[in-house]
Amino acid sequence: AAASRSSLKIGLVPADGIGREVIPAARQAIEALGSDVPKPEFVELLAGFELFTRTGTALPEETVQALKESDCALFGAVSSPSRRVTGYSSPIVGLRKILDLYANVRPVISVAPTPEEKPSVDLIVVRENTECLYVKQEEMTPTENGREARATRLITERASRRIGEMAFELAKARQRKHVTIIHKSNVLSITDGLFRETVRSVPRLHEGKYDDVEIAEQLVDSAVYRLFREPHIYDVMVAPNLYGDIISDAAAALVGSLGLVPSVNAGDNFVMGEPVHGSAPDIAGQGIANPIASIRSAALMLRHLGYGAPADRLDKAVDEVIREGQVLTPDLGGKSKTQEVVDAILKRI
Ligand code: ATP
Ligand code: MG
Fold first, then answer.
1. Where would a tag sit more exposed on the chain, N or C end, judged by fewer CB atoms within 10 A?
2. Radius of gyration of the chain from Cα atoms?
3. Is the beta carbon of 293 within 6 A of some atom in ligand 1?
4. Predicted complex ipTM
5. 192 given a catalytic annotation
6. Counts for the chain of helices (H) and strands (E), in that order
């Protein structure tokens, strides 16, 4: 599909806090690619907690409609209210549902290894994004011995298969071509057993297509242990929602600032880039947010759409700026402003 587009309609949802500072940075980076990508048409869209406090709506219908008419999107960050607010639910969670973005894909790579150096961490966490404990079916029952709380954990063959396919597809495009299935089927033999078995069966469903991809599996506890001790053993890690959530944050911690780590929320028909960090209220409005996670999210989004070469150009420009170490935001020990970092990256693009 990549070659057939004459223009690329990109929804921009900066939302809250530093989202409003880093999404414009990603936009400038895409614009700098020129004719390497189909002519981008940006559509600025509203959402977020701040919007909710002003208007009572966190995710306006116009935003949802415009996204449905776009090819892809970039989402900034939403502030999470410190306590439950009546009538509010997170727009990013809503969008994942509405657009059926069933995979959260997060590449984690060591900070700017030189071209000769091998990065010590170079992996992708592929997290199932729609089920597991996140179906949020909880109930509380009073008993003779006090209250009892239960939660439902849903694992379906369909969701496990499509997340497995996403993992194999990503692994196939990488050098190592290695998938590790993360589970805990020694304890949860039915739910995690189904996840494990279904992901394992993916290559059989696509005769020959994934023959060159190696499959391993690991219990989630030992996977986290090994992630910290020998992260280089991993290439693509695929996990149900909750384990994936924990592993992807742990993996991000391996490479330093949250301001560096990108992600995409991906489905069969839509992809939405989203920096891993939040709205960072402590630094919002100061013009010092690190724009790199957002620019890398834009690159990842383009890669998912089939524009690998322009995505490489963005990543390379970012790596050079980090490696040179002259123009960095304070989270990386520098003194530069967001726009100065953007300008340095644009110059290299
Ligand atoms: P939220 O509720 O929106 O997640 P938070 O308080 O958890 O907000 P995060 O955005 O998750 O904040 O960030 C955690 C810490 O990392 C903060 O101190 C923040 O300043 C820092 N940080 C996050 N993203 C960036 C960035 N892009 N550039 C610089 N610092 C960042
Ligand atoms: Mg946070």
1. N
2. 20
3. yes
4. 0.95
5. no
6. 11, 12
Ligand 2 centroid, distance to 246 Cα (angstroms): 13
Q: Whose CA is nearest to atom 20 of ligand 1?
A: 280
Q: Can you tell me the distance from the alpha carbon of 241 to that of 238, in angstroms, rounded to the nearest whole number? A: 10
| Distance from residue 129's CA to the centre of ligand 1 (Å) | 22
Active-site residue, from 36, 100, 249, 343: 249
CB 212 within 8 A of CB 99: no
pLDDT at 67: 98
User: Measured from the CB, is residue 258 less than 6 Å from ligand 1?
Assistant: yes
Give the pLDDT confidence score for residue 115 in this predicted structure: 67
Quote the DSSP letter at residue 80: P
- SS3 for 319? helix
Q: How far apart are CA 151 and CA 339, in angstroms?
A: 46
Asked if the model's pLDDT at residue 256 lies above 90, the reply is no
CA-wise closest residue to 343 among 35, 29, 23: 29
16, 78, 258, best to mutate for ligand 1 pocket (most atoms within 8 Å of CB): 258
Q: Containing H/E element for 139?
A: strand 138-143
CA distances from 40 to 3, 130, 304 (A): 14, 30, 16
Mutate to test the pocket of ligand 1, among 277, 282, 294, 342 (most ligand atoms within 8 A of CB): 277
- Indicate whether 95 pLDDT > 50: yes
Angle at 67 between CA 61 and CA 70, to 5 degrees: 150
Q: What is the rounded distance in angstroms from the CA atom of residue 335 to the CA atom of residue 103? A: 36
Spatial CB neighbours of 284, under 8 Å, sequence gap ≥ 6 = 16, 17, 18, 20, 21
Q: With helix as H, strand as E and coil as C, how does 15-67 read?
A: ECCCHHHHHHHHHHHHHCCHHHCCEEEEEECCCCHHHHHHHCCCCCHHHHHHH
Active-site residue, 134 included: yes
With a 6 Å cutoff on the Cβ, whether 82 touches ligand 1 is no
Among the atoms of ligand 1, which is closest to the Cα of residue 275?
A: 27
Q: Tell me which of 102, 184, 192, 331 is the catalytic residue.
A: 184
Supply φ then ψ for residue 48, to 5 degrees. 125, 170
